[in-house]
Amino acid sequence: MSLSVQVTGTQELQRYQQLMDTLGDPKHKAELLDALGGIVESQTRRRIADEKSAPDGSSWPAWSDAYSKTRHGNQSLLRGGGDLLDSIQYIVEKNQVRIGSPLPYAAVHQDGFSGAVQVDAHTRLITQAFGKALAFPVYQQVSAFTRMMNIPQREFLGLSRDNQQEVYAVLGSFWGDLMAGAAQ
């Protein structure tokens, strides 16, 4: 898509021609995308850390009772060790900005997952047995196995209505600054 406007005549009309020329500058487009990426990244981090709800305002499904027993006081939904929160980033590419996480499990939380998962062979540290702490923890070899997983969707990417208003404010400010600069 392209836009072309030719304005002739009064000084006011020439100002709009300057504005149209300014809008075509790739530097300004990159600045706008960078500003939008920054605000949406911030909104996404806030959603994970504080709001704990989907962009549509619905609450995320709670942990299962069994899983909640494995969590400790400072952990909350989507925020065990903080890795997902820390991984949220935006990238400006050509004519778009992408917001997300490079972590492989981010998509599982965003979309939910139900199915079989292959667990590789590994060594596990056993610190308790039959509900009692062991005096001397032991290492145990665990063979590879398959287990069924059912992780509910906890959508964290997207724009709520409030988020959209913030984005519109950034856009308005950007265009206002461009227009003020074109008027000079």
Explain what the structure shows.
By secondary structure, this protein is α+β, with helices and mostly antiparallel strands. The chain folds into two domains: 11-112 and 152-183, no CATH class; 114-151, no CATH class. It is 42% helix and 23% strand. It has six helices and six strands. It has helices at residues 11-23, 26-51, 65-68, 83-87, 106-111, 161-183; strands at 89-93, 96-100, 113-119, 122-129, 132-142, 145-151. A hairpin with a 2-residue loop joins strand 1 (89-93) and strand 2. It is elongated.
Quickly list its features.
184 residues, alpha+beta, disordered N terminus, 42% helix
Mean pLDDT: 84
Biggest sheet: strand arrangement: 1-2
Tell me the fraction of residues in β-strands, as a range: 15-25%
Measured distance between first and last alpha carbons: 29 Å
Main sheet: strands, sense, barrel: 2 strands, antiparallel
Order of helices and strands: HHHHEEHEEEEH
Number of domains: 2
- What is the total tally of β strands? 6
Helix content: 40-55%
Helix/sheet category: alpha+beta
User: What radius of gyration results from the CA coordinates?
Assistant: 25 Å
Shape: elongated
Which ranges are low-confidence, i.e. pLDDT below 50, for 5 or more consecutive residues? 1-8
Q: With helices defined by DSSP (H or I, 4 residues minimum), what is the helix count?
A: 6
